[in-house]
Amino acid sequence: MKKLMYSTNLILLLILVSVACSHSQTEPAHDQILRDIEALTHNVFMGEKALNDEKFQLTPLSIEDADIKISKRKNQLDAEITAFVGDANWISEAIHTITVHYEINATNQWEAIGVNINEPVIRVLPRAQ
Question: Nearest CA to 77 among 117, 23, 113?
Fold first, then answer.
């Protein structure tokens, strides 16, 4: 009876350890993903005024009402962000999608390695003052 109890406990311990090890890399937090977008897209987005088509740099970038969907593969992770994009004075007319790509680095942490931007020129409206 003691051998059965010991064997059962050992098996449960091994299962718990294997599950814990397989999920050792935690996903990047949402605020970290937004910081990564800002760092990777510095001086990339251009605003286009909806009234007269004048183009200008959106800086510092502002991302609002973000919805983040994460998809993970073996050593890669993609964070797809849909949000309004703008800066302190301007905000996009519509929601835009930005995808940040991550890989596991040498210290076993997720590291942002690239970004996909569907539309670098964004139609914007002035923010309500």
Answer: 113
Given a cut of 70, the residues of the chain with pLDDT beneath it are 1-24, 129
Tell me how far apart the alpha carbons of residues 23 and 60 are, in angstroms, rounded to a whole number.
35
Domains and CATH numbers, the chain: 27-126 (3.10.450)
Q: Determine the Cα–Cα distance for residues 35 and 39; give it in Å rounded to an integer.
A: 6
pLDDT of the residue at 32: 95
| Cα separations in angstroms, 12 against 4, 21, 29, 95, 106 | 12, 14, 31, 47, 31
Q: What is the pLDDT of residue 23?
A: 46
Gap between the Cα atoms of 104 and 55, Å rounded: 37
Say what the alpha-carbon torsion angle 72, 99, 81, 23 is, to the nearest 10 degrees: 20
Whose tokens are 């009402």? That residue is 65
Give, as one character, the DSSP assignment of residue 106: T
